[in-house]
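Quick look at the format.
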Amino acid sequence: MFTGIIEETGTVEHIGSMKGGKELTIACSFAGETQVDESISVNGVCLTVVSQNGESFRVQCVEETLRKTSFVGISKGDIVNLERSLTLDKAIEGHIVQGHVDSTGTIIKIENRENDRLLTIEYPESFTAYLVGRGSIAVDGISLTVAREQDNYFTVAIIPYTWEHTNMKDLREGDTVNLEYDIFGKYIVRYMEKMQPGSGGTER
């Protein structure tokens, strides 16, 4: 479990092949503090550390992960957002993020304003029920608030600190980002679907 508050960015140093997937070696300042089997959110994807040293750690992406996330097109030198898993002594300053990417989205517009930037993202129509205005969403692992939403597009406002301390500043229009919709919204939608007549659910 994560909060969507990025600790720092890391750099993809090496990409190796494995049967049905990829191995990523990521350099960051806290690599020496990580442990094998530890979960780390990498651009919003919960991955497991399989080896580490003082300068980098290595994670594996299986075929399912590549199919559902932007990692299918990841390259050496890419900057990624990193967050270690939530512990009992950490405050939940963003929102509850599982690191289970629901879909990808495409940045269709970046607007530079005086105090912030607006990103408009297109996402699959099948997920529109999970997104509401002023609700939470994780974009590449960053906890953000939906400023506007219409059809299968939504807009988020990025404050200068977030822009400078994440990989947001490297994004361009047309880029793909990982999206995780609010877990509470997903549970509510699922419950309501099961309560529909003929769904097989049991109303209590």
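Next, a different chain entirely:
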Amino acid sequence: MPVPVSRSLKRLLLTHEIAFIVLVVITGGVGGVWAWQWQQWSAATIRLNYLSHTALEIRSQLFRQIQDVSVAGLREDPHARDLNSRYARDTQELFNELRRKSSYRAEDYAVQAMQTAFSLLQANLRDTLEDPFALNRLVRAKIFDPAFEQRFVADFERAFVSFQGLVDQQLDAQEREIKRWTELAPYGLAVPILVGFALLAFSRRSLTRGFVVPMQGVIAGTREVSGGNLRHTLPEAGVAEVRELARGINHMAHELEASRDAIVAAERQAALGALVPVVAHNIRNPLASIRANAQLLDGSERASERAEMRDDIIETVDRLGRWVSALVSYLHPLQPQRRRIAASAVMDSALRLLEPRIAASDIALVRAPWDTQALIDADPDLLEQALYGLLNNAVEASSAGGRLEVGVTAAEARVRLRIRDEAGGIPFEPEPSGLMPGPSTKRFGTGLGIPIAFKICATHGFRLEFRVDPGRGTEVVITAAASEEHEASDVE
């Protein structure tokens, strides 16, 4: 028995929607953080590489300046000072770029140290160009010596190495950070997956507990109720809508049970009301005949008369017994055991039981049309009983030397079994629910052949029709659905 759930289906679905929205937000958040971090790393890497490249360009340009300006001074080129000034301006622009791209105070200090060393070097270079003495010329000549050049720019080199070391240090730190994030990436990706599985399990459990299982109980209970068990109570569990549905079906079943009991009682009274006159009619007449013959026995002196009266009494008692047996058979519930049979074979079986009487009455039996391949799904014993009753009525109503036609046809997914006599037509209209016997001249009949045939046909879902041609005869037609298969079972 599932535990009742108080919330409604709408609220349950809303909870699941919110849960999956949370999953989407978590997944998007993890992806967004990762993308943002990569963007930050990329921007920082580009910036640091730019700083390193710019510093290298400043250094390269400084060495080119020293060489070009020194050569121009040795040649006593009048444009040497202008060349020196142009190099100084270009290098100053590169320093400005470094200042704009620097983001930390340590970087600013490193750039400032390089710029200070560069300013001192520029001052020394100007002094060298402006000194007219031969010694300074000799010094200018030594500028082309690499060792002298290294000593000349030593302060700048130290500042440059310091700046480059700072940049490399930051690049190394960033590389370690990327490595750490890369190692943590699988765990970060696993979080949305685990959350997704958890939400799926929660959603499945809550839906199963609150809707699926209670709904299965409602469906199973509805089958019980529709099968006639109106006392079955559906479990009122699950979400509010399912509980309300179960409560409504339970109420409906209780109302139907009360109505059914009332209808059954009314039908029972109606059936008894219809059956009592029939029973009274079919018992009163034989009893009256028995009483009359019994009274005549006392006044009869001839043995032959007493024997005839005794025979009449015995015959009346036997006829009353046959009627009671037929009535019990009619009132007994039918449970057809259907199988695939040939309709013509069942008709032949019923005719074989009547062959002696047909021959004794010299009745001409005609089978036309006669389709031996027409198949139906029916209980062969019950159908034979119905056909026997109808054929027996036709035989008993026919006069000696008469004609009896029987036929089996199949058309448009229907099979028709036909019986036609030439007995002038039955003098009443047969009714499916009628038990009161109609006018008849039969001596040994029970009057229940037609009601039994109606009941057997109704149980099978067949249609039984009587077509009366007044003054000529009666045609009885049973219409059944043709079987979908084309192989007949053996029918004895």
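Strands lie at 339-342, 364-370, 375-378, 403-411, 414-421, 463-469, 473-481.

See the schema section for token definitions.
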